Amino acid sequence: MLRALTCWGVRASWQVKAQEQTASYNDEQTAMSSGRARHGGVEAGMIPVAEARERILAQVVPLREVEETPVAVALGRVLATDVLAPFDVPPNDNSAVDGYALNGDDLSPTAPARLRVIADLPAGSVFEGVLRRGEAIRIMTGAPMPQGADTVIPQELVSRDGEFVVIPARIPRGINVRSQGEDITKGMLLVEAGTLLRPQEMGLLSSQGLARIPVTRRPRVALLSTGDEVAEPGGERRPGQIYDSNRISLTGLCGQLGCEVIDLGIARDVKEELRARLLQASEVGDVVLTSGGVSVGVYDLVKEVLTEIGGIDFWQVNMTPGRPLAPGKIGKAYFYGLPGNPVASMVTFLLFVRPALWKLMGRKELEVPRFRATAKCDIGKKAGRREFKRGILRFERGAWEVETTGPQGSGILRSMVLGNCLIILEEGQPPVKAGEEVWVEPFVPF
Ligand code: AMP
Ligand code: MG
Question: Quick one: how far is CA 91 from the chain centroid?
Fold first, then answer.
């Protein structure tokens, strides 16, 4: 059992400060989870995935700082304010094809029309005069419609006879004209605040002449690995040690979200060291992210230290991989203590930390697309908990099919490498038989 972890004996000034800032966190968490057993501010018992996610997100207050960035480097950033269209698109009526612009009154349902070609209008130029009856203008796609013209006949349909063009009968009036404001009208909402900017939003903003836009500041994530057995890649690995992989895959995951990562290395399983590192982390990061040390072993010190310097909830989330999870606060920083097993740390990041970082960045959409695929193999499942298998998703024979990557231990990082999606098996779902449909969530940056 967890012992009562709040120990306000002799308090250093940082403890007082951190305590004040996190007191409200503990109060709110207590209120939200009333009815469940708590031990010294730390909760025992299993929490469903959906509830864990809701409770984590409920704590996050979006960053307020806004900065201006060139649109060209805004990929993956979140737009901070609504952008309204400065002008109509197209800005004027223009031709949808290469052909001849004319007045529809000259068209006849019974006989070809023979019109004098009075000008050539390339894209980007404007006809200054007025087109009269009996006249046509050679026009290129995108060129503004000349005054007096309302129809464009594609050049494949006409024949030229010197300075005349001959238009066949029975062509309807008004064809091949793109109207002013057809795509966008001036003043309409072009891109909404809270939108994560993709290449298409970058293009749309640029098409309105915008070169710089307001985006929310990148969240700073202070990243720490914990454990005496964890060694720095590139350095020596003593017997019994493993190289750190979590900090590196979490760096990649944070990078995909456009966060700034502050690498704080590896903290040994020594309480004082861990405390010092976590406090340092909380001063430089909006978010402090650790892996390891949140299970129930003697050396799992993260929760112990956190209870002293901040507010923490220690959860057993009803899922695999990734059962232990410790969300909380240290001073102003959000804290997420992820499990140590490499797959578990990545999966819990995707489920809980990614939406929290998006919310912090001001993003409105916090869900990622999921879809249905047919299982190509039987998939084992323990009753009553949510499971996330690593899957290989392929489009075959006209449909999405998925198979597992093989052994699914939460330490088998290769399962993430072989896979391209998570297979989501809900709590109530029984084991899956080949041929049945399952939910999948592809591994995509956004
Ligand atoms: P813990 O929760 O600290 O007991 O860690 C659970 C498992 O994850 C142990 O087998 C650890 O060796 C492993 N682990 C912890 N941290 C890391 C890390 N940074 N990189 C790779 N494996 C880790
Ligand atoms: Mg450990």
Answer: 33
pLDDT digit string, tens, across residues 315-325: 899 999 988 99
Closest atom, ligand 1, to C-alpha of 297: 4
pLDDT tens, 143-196? 999 999 999 999 999 999 999 999 999 999 999 999 999 999 999 999 999 999
pTM metric for this prediction? 0.86
The answer to whether the CB of 302 falls within 8 A of the CB of 253 is no
CATH class of 43-65+217-361: alpha beta
Q: Is the model's pLDDT at 6 over the cut of 50?
A: no
Determine the average pLDDT of the residues in 7-11: 29
Q: Select from 2.40.340.10, 3.40.50.150, 3.30.450.20, 3.30.2320.30 the CATH code of 1-40+370-446.
A: 2.40.340.10
Give the CATH number of domain 94-178: 2.170.190.11
| Domain 68-88+185-216: which CATH number of 3.60.21.10, 3.20.20.70, 3.90.105.10, 3.40.50.300 | 3.90.105.10
CA of 299, nearest ligand number: 2
Short-list 87, 5, 77, CA closest to 39: 5
Q: Is residue 302 a contact partner of residue 292, using CB atoms and an 8 Å limit?
A: yes
Pocket test for ligand 1, best of 223, 226, 228, 230 (most atoms within 8 A of CB): 230
**Ligand 1 site, CB within 6 A:** 225, 227, 229-230, 242, 244-247, 291-295, 297, 300, 339-342, 411
Rounded CA gap, 393 and 375, in Å? 9
Pocket test for ligand 1, best of 244, 290, 291 (most atoms within 8 A of CB): 291
Report the 10 Å Cβ neighbour count for 58: 11
Q: How far is the CA of 275 from the centre of ligand 1 (A)?
A: 19
